[in-house]
């Protein structure tokens, strides 16, 4: 591709190693409602839109708000670290003087707490979280909002994510879609989404969009 004028990222599984924390949180959360949850359940029901996981596991809708609060508390007990190479990747984009955005399905409260804890908030000129819009990935609305905030055209941007919903959102918005598998159980679906580029690491993804080393 022509080198982009902006690069936008997913958060969970792309920059932060939250897969195991998410799994542990789900196990404890669903146990509180007497709902079994194991690795097979995680693989079968995982989706960036966690309400689809709630629905697939059979958690009654009237408990969803309470479950959100409980999961956030469980997650906060063992906050995850960045994925290897994530900080280096962000610094590499910054050295290229390209603006960066973050478009995530995660709750704003959790994501901003992670960003502050890890000292990453200054990297991003746009932040769109799952609770900011009624539309969720793979709907292109979250990515379009971030691009509007950055005043960058979709065709001049690249979006890097670890889920098929990330790829679908980027393609629907008209951005260059880059897939990088993370720790979540969705690699098969990610490959099937047919991103413009499939890279095994964030460094390879940045190579693919034309950033200098």
Describe this structure in words.
- By secondary structure, the chain is α/β, with parallel strands linked by helices.
- It has ten helices and six strands.
- Helix 1 crosses helix 4.
- The protein folds into two domains: 6-17 and 81-208, HAD superfamily/HAD-like (Rossmann fold, 3-Layer(aba) Sandwich), CATH 3.40.50; 19-77.
- The longest helix is centred in the first third of the chain and has 14 residues, at 64-77.
- Helix 6 (108-118) links the parallel strand 2 (100-103) and strand 3 (124-128).
- The chain has a six-stranded parallel beta sheet, with helices on both faces.
- The model has no long low-confidence stretch (mean pLDDT 96).
List the helices and strands and how they pair.
Blueprint: E1 6-9, H1 19-31, H2 39-45, H3 50-57, H4 64-77, H5 86-95, E2 100-103, H6 108-118, E3 124-128, H7 141-150, E4 157-161, H8 164-173, E5 176-179, H9 187-192, E6 197-198, H10 202-208
Parallel strand pairs: 1-2, 1-4, 2-3, 4-5, 5-6
Helix pairs in contact: 1-4
